[in-house]
Design a protein that fits this description.
This is Large ribosomal subunit protein uL4. The protein is elongated and about 95 Å long. It has a six-stranded mixed β-sheet. The longest helix has 17 residues. The two termini are about 20 Å apart. Helices cover about 35% and strands about 15% of the residues. It has two domains: about 150 residues, Ribosomal protein L4/L1 (Ribosomal Protein L4, Chain: A), CATH 3.40.1370.10; about 40 residues, no CATH class. It is of the alpha/beta class. It is built from seven helices and six strands, in the order ββαααβαβαβαβα.
Length: about 210
């Protein structure tokens, strides 16, 4: 597909870039994207949850009432899960939620997400620019010129400190380097803003595999 390149004023520069069908034109694989997102979210979990069971709760182990003749159920300790302040039955324990996915599947998932965005006309090309200093107000005016309001993911060819610092306070805007793209961020955006140089980086990265 062919897209026009915009400048930071939101104007058409007159240049057009052809996006590779091998990256932006494949048939999206929904299951691959599901697995990749599932792994990404699982890897974010610390897995440090823990509740105390009856052998870990502080308290007396003295039998609280006699075995028979009370008219109620037997009770041997205040640590029992049936009492307030007692231990918890089958409570959560620390565990590792991460799991493995093949590299080829993750690669397919990213291509599927890029192709899905391109198919839905959610991809825009922006000519390369730089900021002299971190200025959120200046960066917001650029987004206003481009008529961008919803969730947006901007792809840069390399780290740009001024752009990152200028945009980090914007709640619906995220900056990513082309080499660090992941399926979750691609599917969690309403607009994919790609700098002109990033197209070449993406083609280089994904053509090598």
């Amino acid at each position: 597909m062919e897209l026009s390149v915009l400048n930071i004023k939101g104007e058409d520069t007159g240049r057009k870039v052809t996006l590779s069908d091998a990256i932006f034109g494949i048939e999206p694989n929904g299951h691959a994207m599901y697995l990749d997102v599932k792994q990404y979210l699982a890897n974010q979990r610390q897995g440090t949850h823990k509740s105390k069971e009856r052998n870990e709760v502080a308290g007396s182990t003295k039998k609280i009432k006699k075995q028979k003749g009370t008219g109620g159920a037997r009770a041997g300790s205040l640590k029992s899960p049936v009492f307030v302040g007692g231990g918890r039955v089958f409570g959560p324990r620390p565990r590792n939620y991460t799991f493995k996915l093949n590299k080829k599947l993750k690669f397919l998932a990213r291509l599927s997400a890029l192709s899905l965005l391109a198919r839905d006309n959610k991809v825009a090309l922006l000519e390369s620019f730089s900021l002299e200093a971190p200025k959120t107000k200046e960066f917001k005016s650029i987004l206003s010129n481009l008529n961008i309001t919803g969730k947006t993911l901007m792809v840069l060819p390399a780290l740009d400190k001024n752009i990152i610092l200028s945009s980090r306070n914007l709640p619906k805007f995220k900056v990513s380097v082309a080499s660090d793209l992941n399926t979750y961020d691609l599917l969690n955006t309403e607009k994919l803003l790609i700098s002109e140089e990033s197209v070449n980086v993406l083609e280089t990265l994904y053509s090598e595999r």
